[in-house]
Write a structure and sequence with these properties.
172 residues; mainly alpha; DinB superfamily protein; DinB/YfiT-like
C-alpha cells in the first residue's frame, strides 16, 4: 500500500494539532497495523473485569473508550470519503457523550470490540488505497471548519494514541 505524508497546517483546524503531534513520523499503513496489535495486547494483558471499570466516577470504562475510538474513526473516515469524492455540503459535528451512552459498549464483549476496531482499520487502509492521490488534498467542511481527507486520515492514529496513553496511565 502506498503511504502519504502528514497534512500541512493549512489542511486542518488548529484544534487537531493535539492529535497530529502525537503521531510518530513513520509509514502510515505500518502505524495503523501496529496500533491494531497494541490495543489487542493491552486488553489481553489485563484482567477480564479491567475493561468494565472507569478509573473514576463519571469517566468511561476501557470498553467505552475503545468504542468511542471506533465511532470517531468511522466518522472521520466517512468525512474523508465525502470530501475525497467532492462533497460540497458541510457535514455536521458530533457530540461524543451521547454516542458512547447510546452505544452501551459495556454490554459488548471486549473481543467483539477489538474485532470491530481491527475491521474498521482494515477498511480504512483499503479505502485509502482506492482514492486518487490528489483527492487527499480536497477541502471539505465538517463541524464548521475546513479540513482535508489527508488530515482526517492522520488525525485517526493520533486520536488513538491520545486515548491509548490515557488507558495506560489512568486505568490500572
Amino acid at each position: 500500500m502506498r503511504s502519504f505524508h502528514p497534512p500541512t497546517k493549512d489542511e486542518y483546524p488548529a484544534y487537531f494539532d493535539r492529535y497530529l503531534q502525537l503521531n510518530p513520523q513513520q509509514d502510515y499503513p505500518l502505524l495503523i497495523e501496529e496500533q491494531i496489535q497494541t490495543i489487542k495486547e493491552l486488553f489481553k494483558s489485563k484482567t477480564s473485569n479491567w475493561a468494565e471499570k472507569p478509573y473514576q466516577a463519571g469517566k468511561w470504562s476501557p470498553k467505552e473508550v475503545l468504542g468511542h475510538v471506533i465511532d470517531t474513526e468511522r466518522i472521520m473516515t466517512f468525512r474523508a470519503l465525502c470530501f475525497a469524492r467532492g462533497e460540497r455540503n458541510a457535514l455536521p459535528g458530533f457530540d461524543q457523550d451521547p454516542y458512547v451512552l447510546n452505544a452501551r459498549f459495556g454490554s459488548v464483549p471486549s473481543a467483539l470490540l477489538l474485532e470491530d476496531f481491527e475491521n474498521q482499520r482494515k477498511a480504512l487502509l483499503t479505502l485509502i488505497q482506492t482514492l486518487p492521490e490528489d483527492s487527499l488534498d480536497f477541502h471539505g467542511k465538517a463541524n464548521g471548519t475546513k479540513i482535508t481527507p489527508r488530515a482526517l486520515f492522520w488525525i485517526i492514529p493520533g486520536h488513538f494514541i491520545h486515548h491509548l496513553t490515557i488507558l495506560k496511565e489512568r486505568y490500572q
